[in-house]
Amino acid sequence: MHTSQKRGLHTTADRIKLHFKDSKGTLIKTVEANEGDDILSIAHEHDIDLEGACEGSVACSTCHVILSPEYYDLLPEPEDDENDMLDMAFALTDTSRLGCQVKLTRDLDGMTVMLPSATRNMFVDGKKPTHH
Amino acid sequence: MTQMKLAIIGAGPSAFYVASRLLSLLPHASLPALRIHMYDRLWAPHGLVRYGVAPDHPEVKNCTHKFDTAATDPRFRFFGNVNIGSTPISPIPHSVNLPLSSIFSNYSHLLFATGCTLPTLHPALPPSAHCVPALSLVHWYTQHPSRPPPPALDRITHVSLIGNGNVSLDIARMLLSSPSDLAKYDIPEHVLDVLSRSSVKHVSIIARRGPFEAAFTVKELRELMNLPEASMVPIDPSALIPSPDVKLTRQQTRALQLLRKGSDKSLGTTPKTWSLDFFRSPTGLAPPTSSSPLAQLSFAHTTLDPKTNRAVSTGETSVLPTSLVVTSLGFHSDPMMSFYDPGLGHLRTLSGRVISSSGTALRNVYASGWAATGAKGVLASTMMDAYAVADTIISDLLPKGEEANTTSVPPSPSPEPSLQTDNDILMNSDPRLDGVPPEIEVTLKGGLVTGYEDWKAVDIEEVRRGEATGKERERMGWEEARTFLAQSRTATS
């Protein structure tokens, strides 16, 4: 389980900017966070509609986010357990990660975090999951 | 409409995700006024999260925190131990019965979130002393109120699981794990007791098709491969070569890597073993005789028909001696349910709206989760489906042109032009907002029907009792819970 880092006396220079966007690319909110914070906790702190059913314990895929390729490549590879959950994520892409497993570092400043396609697609596409 | 008094039948994750979504999208102070009454035939809420998830998967159950939050909303009420149906027959003998007509007359809206509660059986393997559905084992190790008998594991050496989905792998893992490793989890003491006296040496996980058609997910396969006390019989490498013209999915590719690598412990180094047996379709089960102490499970060998991707017989047969056959072949909804479609195995819906047998959408009657989609999907897909159904409910409720505050989701389209809304109105368009059906009203002081605060008191007590043995929680059955709640009420009155 992840807990956000304590807020010390951080200056503006220490803060990392993230742009949360919806699946169409529309900006939802730009936020600032600290090194070591994970994307799920950051989203919740700023009232962004990113679900986290298992609360950061890599037992679901509801915090699935899509990152821009150049930032995705800066992250360490997902572990097996994260990849196992990503297998199940709806609308998985090559730059998908679980938000709870992405911890911020300074070089991620300015990263775009896109929330995947919304629930409406379940009925429009008729996509049925096949595992339980 | 200026109000929605919604009855939800079922209190599992689908029900709670719909409720939670409606409560957050419709603010307290504004119209339409909202009330949600959630019913479950079990005394404890949360459905499969409590009575389906394996004991060694505690993280999955974190989703209940969100359900707890929804339940604190004053517009929400939970009624446990209430069986709603057109027939009073329930597998839970102690539940209170409420006819569906009472729901129609006391509520303006109805959501079926009743799941797929019946196991799909194998035509060649009827239940017997040597053949049980997987659901009865899951109900045994989760202490489900239907209280199936425990398997006689002290007299069982070989278990044959028919089906290779995650339920099958869960059962294999429970049988192959060491009880001391399981002891810290949410697993009843009597279950641990039976497991500690188990003589199971081998578990065969049998499927009629091949590795690329397997229903398990990589997480569950990996857990089996990593077991410290069980090793897998290596799979013939020729069975793990994909045909060149088929593009494997990400999941198939990752499963293939695991299958090739095999189990962490090699065969022969562990007290227990397991195997994935592909291309075997059961044709019958002969009980033990005086000359053969094990039952005999007979198979037709199969291959894949390249055109249909279905299993077809090769003509070859074989027999496998086994102590217990467990069929794990999926689930379907109760055929006695209103609006059940026998062709589908679940309720008939479109965009969450229940469709009558004449093809019209029933006004203000909805279904979500496995009751609407069939028994497929994990929490993530359940959540997405539930949110989509909640959006449909809201868009049907609000006047045209208005939208609730759905972040990035447009409201559901109104029924397609060819889909008529039924002219009959089943529900009550003007129910008493805070009224409870009279049949339930009379039971409320008697302690037969549980409220959410009753569940929370039991929840806290189960965790407290678990602390005594260093485990996550020690579950209570209905009689224990009822006694505990009665004592708590006396103590505080």
UniProtKB/TrEMBL annotation, chain A:
Keywords assigned by UniProt, alphabetized: 2Fe-2S, Iron, Iron-sulfur, Metal-binding
Biological processes, Gene Ontology terms: P450-containing electron transport chain
GO CC terms, sorted: mitochondrion
Keyword Metal-binding annotated: yes
InterPro entries: 2Fe-2S_ferredoxin-like_sf, 2Fe-2S_ferredoxin-type, Adrenodoxin-like, Adrenodoxin_Fe-S_BS, Beta-grasp_dom_sf
Coiled coil feature spans: none
Cofactor(s) required for function per UniProt: [2Fe-2S] cluster
PROSITE patterns: 2FE2S_FER_2, ADX
Domain of life: Eukaryota
GO MF annotation list: 2 iron, 2 sulfur cluster binding; electron transfer activity; metal ion binding
Start and end residues of each 2Fe-2S ferredoxin-type domain: 14-119
Record-stated family: Belongs to the adrenodoxin/putidaredoxin family.
Protein's UniProt name: 2Fe-2S ferredoxin-type domain-containing protein
Automatic annotation (TrEMBL), chain B:
Required cofactor(s): FAD
Catalytic reaction(s) noted: 2 reduced [adrenodoxin] + NADP(+) + H(+) = 2 oxidized [adrenodoxin] + NADPH
Keywords per UniProt: FAD, Flavoprotein, Mitochondrion, NADP, Oxidoreductase
GO MF terms held by the record: oxidoreductase activity
Enzyme Commission number(s) of this protein: 1.18.1.6
Residue sites binding NADP(+) per the record: 164-167, 208-209, 220
Positions that bind FAD: 14, 48, 84
Chief subcellular location: mitochondrion
Transmembrane segments: none
InterPro entries to which the protein is assigned, alphabetical: FAD/NAD-bd_sf, Ferredox_Rdtase, Ferredox_Rdtase_adrenod
Cellular compartments annotated: Mitochondrion
Keyword flag Nucleotidyltransferase: no
GO cellular component: mitochondrion
First-level EC class: oxidoreductase
Homology family: Belongs to the ferredoxin--NADP reductase type 1 family.
Protein name as annotated: NADPH:adrenodoxin oxidoreductase, mitochondrial
